[in-house]
Model the fold of this input.
Amino acid sequence: MPASQPPLAPGPAVLEVRDLCRSYGELQAVDRVSFQVGPREIVGLLGPNGAGKTTTINMVLGVLQPTSGSIRIGSLDLASRRSQAMERTNFAAVYAPLPGNLTVRQNLRVFGMIYGVERLAPRIDEVLELFELGGLGDTRCGVLSSGEQTRVCLAKAMLNRPHLLLLDEPTASLDPATARDIRRVIRDFADQGPGGVLWTSHNMHEVEAVCDRVLFLSRGRILLEGNPRTLPEEHGKASLEDLFVAVAREPLTLEGVEA
Amino acid sequence: MKARRVGAVVLRQVYLLRGSLSRILPLFIWVAVDMVLWGFISRYLSTLASPGFDFVPVLLGAVLLWDFFGRVMHGVTMAFFEDVWSRNFLNFFATPMKVSEYVTGLVLTSIATSTLGLVAMIVVATGAFGLSFLAYGPLLLPFLLILFMFGIALGILSTAMVLRLGPAAEWFVWPIPGMLSPFVGVFYPLSTLPDWMQVVSRFLPPSYVFESLRAMLEGRPAHLGDLGLGLVLAGGYLLLAGQVFTRVYRHAVQSGLLARYSAESVT
Done:
């Protein structure tokens, strides 16, 4: 058990992950990871490439089966009630753009039906406006810029007003101004509740600005957990970026440190 | 199963078809061309045969039924390939949608697209070559039902194969109807085949359709028992296909293949 793994906080959680493991043959991609995301909370899942972030997100989305461990979304056990759990979940990932051969509005209608969104047409108008896509509703997604495609994915992710929102590098292809707007929208989403957000990013300034709590993942294990604004100082680092570099390059020196 | 999710799968295909001439035309152009080709061949052979024997219902009718089977099968696989080509698996399967809802959506899409093809074939075969479906009588229904069920079953099995082996396995799917046609006796009686091929034929439901079709047109009693066997076999293949797809999907989730589908393998 990694020494830095904290006990799970009491109270209702929108996501509760316990002792999650995933191996590929000899490779332990995720190793006994436990954490939770509370309502109105944005939790940053940080770590170098290959740390296990996307593997963890794929398991929470139910497209990858854990080797062991459990995942609960709200009160629903993902293994036994995947469909119901996914009704209150949504995601946006830089590697999962919506089909380019449908228009923005067509894609949103298809996914809105899949997620069972009530009063779908006005809801589509709302999310288009929220992400400033109003003029692009009838444009095929494949001809949009990468930033616009990212915003369409985020619009899809908000369509069903999810209780759990999973964002895998949502601002990776956005210019700084748009990224700031998106961060504000996500922050508002969390503040208004009842949803919680699990957010991965390599932009430490962004993480500091948005996340209530961060988890540092390295080699499939959570090494540190805490407030992104105080965590660097607690570990003798000048900034979150310095702490990230330390986790990425010298994870062994941080193992055993209590988060 | 929720109808709205099934409807979403179908709606996506409707959007794709509606906006694309290159998707709509193949639904009926190739089968219409087939009708024209085999219509003239049938007409020519009729001039060589004994007076009174008409090749049109025997040959052109058989080709029409076989093309219908092919349309049904490819209707399922084409709808599935749209998600392969647009890398849509993660988006679709990381939602509340169940495998059964997804597959049902593919099947409904196939019913719509294969019906379009069937109508085009009937228009050409009856309009240009005088094929009359009255010649088949009420047996036309079990003929179509067996071919439809087997087409859906093979379509689902084919999608399971591509899901398991990766996008490149699409190549295996296209020739399947052509590979089966020698065994099911579209153009000739099964007795023409060597023994080992006849054994294979007995396990293929369309064999019973084409044998019954020829028997009926030659004035012999229709093989109702054989047609019943064909229906049971087709139903069995349909159940098997559903189970195979579900198992392959579960394997893809267990192994990590679904999340890394474009890599074709997780090893």
Observations:
- The longest strand of chain A covers residues 27-37.
- The domain at 1-88+164-259 of chain A is CATH 3.40.50.300 (Rossmann fold).
- The interface with chain B takes residues 22, 24-25, 58, 61-65, 83-84, 86-87, 91, 93, 95-103, 106, 109-111, 113-116, 156 of chain A (CB under 8 Å).
- Residues 1-11 of chain A have pLDDT under 50 and may be disordered.
